[in-house]
Structures are given as structure tokens and as C-alpha cells.
């Protein structure tokens, strides 16, 4: 398994909106199984660790507090969590040049 598969899977979903729409209401374990079926294998622990660490590193990079006031989380309201990861977190991490999110 590889944490590099997580950003690759999220970018795949960005390019395949029908897949994102199908998965955005699914339980995390279903999403992880679908990712593996598509060749993007990773564990739930790898997913949770990478996402949390990336949000924290992004906050540090932007000199934002990593607490309930983290501005990126405001973008999450009204969205499914997976949609937020695909449309907000992934581009922000990629644009910021965070290690592990390079294209």
C-alpha cells in the first residue's frame, strides 16, 4: 500500500466527476475498496494520517491556526467530505507544493 495513492485517487475523482458523485455519499470503507479496485490501494490508517497531517501542514504553510477557525474548513460546509477533499484540499495541497501531493 502507498500513501502516494491517496492524492492520485483524489485527483482521479476530480477528473471523473461521475465517480465522485457515486462515492461521495458512501461510507469510507466503501470508498477505500473502490479506490483499491481502481488500482489506488491504501489503508484507512494511511488515509486518515495523510489527510490530517496534510491539513495541518497546509495550515502551517499558510500561517493559519490549525483549529476550528482553519479557513479551508469553511469551504467544507454544504459539501460531502469526499467532495471537499477532491475540490478543496487536494488543489490547495498541490498548489502549495506540499510533499506527497506533487503531480
Q: What do these coordinates show?
A:
The structure is a single chain. The chain is built from 6 helices and no strands. Helix 1 crosses helix 6 (81-96) and helix 4 crosses helix 6. 19% of the residues are buried. By secondary structure, the chain is mainly alpha-helical. The chain has one domain. The protein has helices at 5-15, 17-23, 28-37, 44-62, 71-74, 81-96. The longest helix has 19 residues, at 44-62.
Summarize this entry quickly.
This protein is an all-alpha fold and 103 residues long. The chain has six helices and no strands.
Distinctive features:
globular, 6 helices, mainly alpha, 103 residues
Topology:
Blueprint: H1 5-15, H2 17-23, H3 28-37, H4 44-62, H5 71-74, H6 81-96
Helix pairs in contact: 1-6, 4-6
- Count helical runs: 6
- Our measurement of the CA-to-CA distance between the termini, rounded to an integer number of angstroms, reads 19 Å
**Which stretches are poorly predicted, pLDDT < 50 over at least 5 residues?**
none
The biggest sheet amounts to: none
Mean pLDDT: 91
Please give the radius of gyration in angstroms: 13 Å
| SSE ordering | HHHHHH
Structurally, the number of domains stands at 1
- Seen as an oligomer or otherwise, the chain set is single chain
| Strand count | 0
Strand-residue proportion: under 5%
Helix content: 55-70%
Overall geometry comes to globular
Structural class: mainly alpha
Amino acid at each position: 500500500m502507498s500513501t502516494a495513492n491517496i492524492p492520485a485517487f483524489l485527483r482521479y475523482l476530480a477528473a471523473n466527476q461521475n465517480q465522485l458523485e457515486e462515492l461521495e455519499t458512501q461510507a469510507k470503507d466503501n470508498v477505500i475498496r473502490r479506490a483499491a479496485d481502481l488500482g489506488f490501494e491504501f489503508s484507512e490508517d494511511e488515509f486518515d494520517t495523510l489527510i490530517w497531517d496534510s491539513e495541518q501542514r497546509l495550515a502551517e504553510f499558510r500561517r493559519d491556526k490549525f483549529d476550528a477557525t482553519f479557513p479551508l474548513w469553511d469551504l467544507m460546509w454544504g459539501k460531502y467530505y469526499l467532495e471537499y477533499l477532491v475540490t478543496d484540499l487536494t488543489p490547495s495541497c498541490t498548489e502549495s507544493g506540499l510533499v506527497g501531493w506533487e503531480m
